[in-house]
């Protein structure tokens, strides 16, 4: 046998190496395809996240051919850290959060409204402490109100006080970033007034807190939204579209028969025990994006407070076309 001719052993070894290399290529490719069909969304354990739970329970994401990993975080700070580090594709947030991320360049865009205050379902309420002599919005002049600074809580508080006719120089605020702490301080009378989100505000009222005004008075200004990174919108646009279709199908189910999901609500969302029986599941926004007027009002507030150097253009921060692409059902 020629010394240059391959021996049976060498031939067998070469086949094994080639087979191993083929398997490595196949297994390396699988996660890439999975990642392209997967979305990582940061959510908060609040009522606004409820369509996600309904969609998971009814396998709507699975039926849409996508995987959605909902990452539940304890605070907006944790959520923003995940977004800053590039660990998520999207998040539940507010208009001012999107604006903050886009202050230097467009990084994220709003794809949908989750909830908006309407005539029957507020998102936020300004309450007086139990036993308080405060009875009317005008009574809040020169009264420190517990809020979280530079957030939707402060924005809504300002707009409500302006609506009530309280002059700027009579508006007082006390910074209490933690919502549970703000709730407790109000009930203990250590805060004379505070702005709280539902359903925690309803729980405070059931414990004796006094309703002074809520954002039904400025319906249309307080919104929660879903935002996605520009990278995700570029690389996973069809996946995000299928996600929004599944989300909106869950919204239709909730809005049509809300009581059918009460058990799931109590299991997944932090509803205080003293209002669980009476809490009305609110309607969720169906196929909506913020209007330019809503965005502009937030820009006016943020620039007046010097949270932004200049207003950010609506079109760099909102992606209305996701709901109008071919194959998507028309908006109501």
Question: Can you give a write-up of this model?
Answer:
Helix 6 links the parallel strand 6 and strand 7. Helix 2 packs across helix 10. 39% of the residues lie in helices and 17% in strands. By secondary structure, it is an alpha/beta fold. It folds into two domains: 163 residues, D-Maltodextrin-Binding Protein, domain 2 (3-Layer(aba) Sandwich), CATH 3.40.190.10; 94 residues, D-Maltodextrin-Binding Protein, domain 2 (3-Layer(aba) Sandwich), CATH 3.40.190.10. The N terminus and C terminus are likely disordered.
Compact summary:
The chain is an alpha/beta fold and 332 residues long.
CATH class of the largest domain: Alpha Beta
Largest sheet: 5 strands, mixed
Q: Tally the helices: what do you get?
A: 12
Specify Rg, calculated over alpha carbons. 25 Å
CATH architecture of the largest domain: 3-Layer(aba) Sandwich
What's the topology here?
Layout: H1 8-36, E1 38-43, H2 50-57, H3 60-63, E2 67-72, H4 76-84, E3 90-93, H5 95-101, E4 108-116, E5 124-128, E6 144-147, H6 152-163, E7 172-175, H7 179-187, E8 193-197, H8 200-206, E9 210-214, E10 223-229, H9 230-235, H10 237-256, H11 262-268, H12 292-304
Parallel strand pairs: 1-2, 1-3, 6-7, 6-8
Antiparallel strand pairs: 3-10, 4-10, 5-8, 5-9
């Amino acid at each position: 046998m020629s010394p240059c001719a391959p021996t049976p052993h060498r031939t067998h070894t070469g086949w094994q190496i080639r087979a191993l290399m083929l398997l490595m290529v196949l297994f390396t490719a699988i996660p890439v395809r999975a990642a392209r069909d997967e979305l990582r969304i940061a959510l908060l354990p609040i009522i606004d996240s409820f369509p996600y739970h309904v969609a998971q329970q009814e396998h709507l994401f699975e039926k849409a051919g996508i995987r959605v990993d909902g990452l539940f975080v304890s605070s907006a700070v944790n959520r923003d850290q995940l977004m800053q580090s590039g660990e998520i594709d999207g998040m539940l947030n507010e208009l001012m959060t999107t604006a903050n991320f886009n202050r230097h360049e467009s990084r994220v865009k709003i794809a949908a409204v989750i909830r908006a205050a309407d005539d029957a379902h507020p998102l936020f309420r300004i309450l007086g402490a139990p036993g308080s002599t405060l009875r009317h919005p005008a009574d809040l002049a020169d009264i420190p109100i517990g809020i979280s600074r530079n957030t939707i809580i402060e924005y809504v508080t300002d707009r409500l006080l302006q609506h009530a006719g309280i002059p700027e120089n009579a508006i007082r605020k006390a910074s209490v970033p933690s919502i549970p702490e703000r709730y407790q301080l109000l009930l203990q009378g250590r805060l004379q007034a505070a702005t709280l989100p539902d359903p925690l505000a309803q729980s405070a009222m059931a414990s004796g807190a006094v309703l002074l005004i809520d954002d039904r008075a400025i319906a249309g200004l307080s919104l929660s939204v879903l935002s996605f990174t520009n990278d995700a919108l570029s690389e996973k646009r069809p996946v995000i579209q299928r996600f929004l279709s599944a989300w909106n199908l869950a919204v239709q189910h909730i809005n049509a028969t809300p009581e059918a999901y009460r058990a799931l609500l109590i299991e997944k969302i932090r509803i205080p025990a003293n209002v669980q029986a009476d809490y009305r599941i609110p309607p969720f926004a169906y196929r909506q994006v913020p209007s330019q007027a809503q965005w502009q009002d937030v820009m006016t507030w943020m620039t007046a407070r010097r949270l932004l150097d200049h207003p950010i253009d609506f079109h760099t921060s909102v992606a209305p076309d996701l709901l109008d692409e071919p194959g998507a059902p028309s908006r109501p």
